Amino acid sequence: MNQKNVLLSIFFLLFVNNTFADSPLTSTPIYLGYIDIPLIREADKSDGIITVKQLCFLTENRNPIAEKLALINSLRWRFEGKSNAPEYLKFLFERKPQLNYKNFINKASAKELICYAYLKAMDNYFDVKSATIFAKQAMSKAQTSYSIHLIGTLIFVQSFLSQKESFKIYADMNQVRTNKKLHIDLREKSIQAVFSYTDSYKVYYK
Questions:
Q1: Percent of the chain with pLDDT over 90
Q2: For residue 115, is it within any domain?
Q3: N or C end: fewer C-beta atoms under 10 angstroms in the chain?
Q4: Is residue 7 part of a domain?
């Protein structure tokens, strides 16, 4: 590879990195609304690789979904990707043997589906097609959960980063905000962390 091609490759990588680092999934610090929770503070200071302690929290039914999503958010993202989602599924299947890879999308609860979808999206925020499928299933099973619809839509709009489609980011997120059927189960600081970013796309909305 000649010097010109090397420079072009470096420029492309820097461009892609900066573009996706400024995106719905990577620019919304939802966890800040729950930083008073010790486990989330620990995750915030960690390397982002999911631990057994965190997996126990995510798979415990009685823990609020908003806190689970905040924990996932606090693990952040990596440009080179992570593998937290497969670890979550493996751990979940061990705790709930009635679930497996074949029936997960249909038999899992809305909370389990959105946790997996969010982990999967944060593992590889360059490609959220598969994560979106699980997120939409979670939303269909929890039709009144604000937090599930907010995160599910956040995953979905990640694919609208092109200039021609970026207006959809504001439009779709605003639909969640104005949906009166949804029960607010997420702290205001976390909600603001989302919309303070996604509202910036309003300039593209017609």
A1: 81
A2: yes
A3: C
A4: no
